[in-house]
Fold:
Amino acid sequence: MILRLRNVGMHYGANQVLRNVTLSFKQGELVAIIGPNGAGKSTLLGIMAGLRSHFSGECWLQEKPLAKWPRRAFAQTVSVVPQLQPAEFPFSAEQVVLMGRMPFSDGMFESAADEAAVVHAMQITDTLQFRTRDFRTLSGGERQRVILASALAQSPKVLLLDEPTTFLDLQHQVSLYRLLRSLCRDGLLALSVTHDLNLAAAYADRIVILHNGAAVADGSPDEVIHNASIRTVFSTDVEIQTGPSGRPWIHYGR
Amino acid sequence: MAVKQVTARRVWTTSLLSLCTMLAAIAILPLIGSAHIDYGRAIAGQSPDAEILFGVRLPRVLLAMLTGGALAAAGVLFQALLRETLATPYTLGVSSGASLGAVVAICFGANQVWLASLAGAALTLFLVMAVASESRRLSSFTLLMAGITLNSICMALILFFQNFASFGQSFAIVRWLMGGIDAVPYATLAWLAAAVLPSVFYLFWKSREWNLLSMGEDWAAARGVSTSTLILSGYLIGSFLTGTVTALTGPIGFVGLIVPHAVRLTIGADHRLLIPASFFLGAAFLAICDTIARTILAPAEIPVGVITAILGGPFFIWMLRSRSKLH
Structure:
């Protein structure tokens, strides 16, 4: 197991946002984390990303507690695509992607290997064409792809994505999940928080449902996506059929 | 708009060009003034050229340069630290602490106003640190809140002391708060340089980390940066730079805002370019403003803070307008 959580809990003041979450993930998996707003998905991702430290329970990366990882070594292994990345200063898209090489480079300047990693990350995320554009002037979807490129430039073994398709058009939503599947075949563990249940069902190997801070379901899309689980967690009746690929397909009705 | 790639060659070229601008200012500005002087006669030690050049104008230009460079570099730093393009070296309260120290010294008739000012800056720095560290993890937000609060308290105390000051003391306080450059002994310049230059070099050395921090604390942490340590070191160095120069010159507004913005608009946001260019050009800018201040109504002198504010005000409005268009 590359990533393991045992009895992880967290609260903001009196508000308990995560309770007794026990999960483990292995390399090569594409896992979707779904659940209603406020279920604790982003908090869980933040803990696994090493960005939230005041949690109870235990979290290990490669069998080593997160707190024992030096920051730089951790960043060479785990990278994050945040839900939203504001920018105040006029960095180019390429500069934003180059920042992903920080854990690997010493000194004042990036190496040729860093440059090569950046070009590759921008190619596979279809962002190379606006490498010199001011990051702030890109559309929401273009920004999101640049942020993904920056995370991929970190050459991670674990990629954590928080609602990565929010600003993406249909083409790039599908491209993103196909890219994740392809990277997972090469050994990446990708954990994606998403609200798009059909994309999750179509591409994920495994789905975890969070509800009121607890992991209430964990399994393949067939095992997890059914009328009862959706009704309980989202308080909504939907029609679930089997799609052409043999995976669940959710019709929302009118 | 295309943003140019940052290479080692570009960093060195930009730094060298800005350094040349500063050196040109050092060469030209001491010649400007009500009394005409000649370099040849001054270097040969002939009177009065040597006294005017080496005793009055050169130390004044050098003080303006160290101050301008330090404020511009601190401005770049605080903008990255707070992720706010409108932040200045004075946002986090250290200059108000320095001013309060100076005001107290003036009110109590102390001679070493600069020493009291330095003590005021140091005290404010540690108070801000103590308040901001209350939540154990130092963040830009807690720093900003603590800084703004301490700033307001110091300003209120300055008004309190001024309210009870005599007419002469009140004039001295107002004059100090306007900011001004005077000729200082070379020994003072030497210790100021010893404080400013290593600090700016440290900021330059950490440039790539400021790049990451200016995108956000989580962004930087996810890329291997220890953000709490970086924020702490940035705050200490920035406050040290600001407090040290403010103790000698009083608060001089807009340098830490105008110069970083002008440089950023010209060469981009990468701190490897921004820090050296802002330091050298900030040095040249304040020296030019001070030369205007001492010559435009000669023999009367205008406080240099007035000149930087007159130039800075319209620039600030223009910057706000272009910022709102972009967003």
Notes: Chain A has a mean pLDDT of 91.
